[in-house]
Amino acid sequence: MEKGRVHLIISGFVQGVFYRAATRDTAMRLGLKGWVRNLPDGNVEAVFEGPVEKLKQAVAWCHQGPPGARVTKIDEKWDEYTGEFDGFDVRYGW
Length: 94
What we know:
Elements: E1 3-13, H1 19-30, E2 33-38, E3 44-51, H2 52-64, E4 70-79, E5 88-91
Parallel strand pairs: 2-5
Antiparallel strand pairs: 1-3, 1-4, 2-3
Helix pairs in contact: 1-2
């Protein structure tokens, strides 16, 4: 099973709607590792690692987000798997 890494910047109405918590729950359900955090410009940043097929599912979920979110754009950067994460965390601060 091919593994990979994807780094996302999610734009739209994505703060104050439990986007980070729902992203963490989605990543854990899919068995992915990485982190998610709010950015000072109102966007959300996330890094996922794991099986490529599961990463694609996470990206598809991020385009929708939790109820109340309105995603207008996602910048995606795919990269090589590093294995640096032990779990999936919500990060605070930037």
